[in-house]
Each structure stands twice: as C-alpha cells, then as structure tokens.
Write a structure and sequence with these properties.
three-stranded mixed β-sheet, 121 residues, binds copper (II) ion, alpha/beta, 9 strands
Length: 121
C-alpha cells in the first residue's frame, strides 16, 4: 500500500515536471498552408524558436511538396488529401520553402519562407 502511494506521487511529479519542461520548450503553433500552381499560401510562415509547429498542408490542383532542406522536411500532397505533420522549430533563421516535384517544370517557381524567431538576444 505504502509503496504504491509512493509510486503514484513519483508518477505525478514526473508528469508535472514534464509539463513544465514542455512549457519552457515553446508553444504549439498550428499553421495551414495550401499550395497551387505555382505558389504557397501563405508564402511566409513565422514561428518562435522551439515551437512545435503543426502544419496542415493541402493542394488545390496538382501534387506539390512542402520542402525545407535545413529541417529535412519533404512532404508531398495531392488534391483532396491534405496531410498533417509536425516539427520542432529548433534552429533560428530564415529558411526557403519550396516544391521539389519535377513533373511540372514550373514547380521550381514555388517559393515560400519559414522564419524562426530566436528566443533570446
Ligand atoms: Cu509543385
């Protein structure tokens, strides 16, 4: 009995600690980005460093991708089937967002930008 109480207290303490750590790590940011010939909308995504960014990505015409090299993100989407993915914005700076699909030449023209604002300074 006694030890099971001890375990409960420990688990609770860890849970609270986990929440505190998460709060310090940054908030959660939800962003909806839609792609179409030949741009992203919005073209600019701005977040705070360490935010957990949840992206809902969709296309209104042909397949496109949401690609950010520095974050090793390359997500392909097709019409009528939006996707959701998350990443931790742990590197501050400005990063190009582009479409890396080659079926349509003009996808090269698709340019967006991820801006990750640094937490300190
Ligand atoms: Cu494309």
């Amino acid at each position: 009995m006694r030890s099971s109480l001890g375990w409960s207290a420990l688990v609770l303490t860890l849970a609270v600690f986990g929440l505190l750590v998460r709060a310090q790590e940054g908030g959660e940011r939800k962003v909806a980005v839609s792609a179409h010939k030949y741009s992203f909308s919005p073209a600019r995504v701005e977040v705070q460093q360490d935010d957990l960014v949840r992206v809902t990505f969709s296309t209104t015409d042909i397949p496109h991708s949401f690609t950010i090299d520095k974050y090793r993100i390359a997500k392909r989407v097709e019409s009528g089937r939006p996707i959701v993915f998350e990443f931790r914005a742990d590197q501050p700076g400005r990063f190009p967002i582009y479409c890396n699909l080659t079926a349509d030449e003009r996808c090269k023209e698709m340019v967006g930008e991820l801006i990750v604002r640094g937490r300190s300074r």
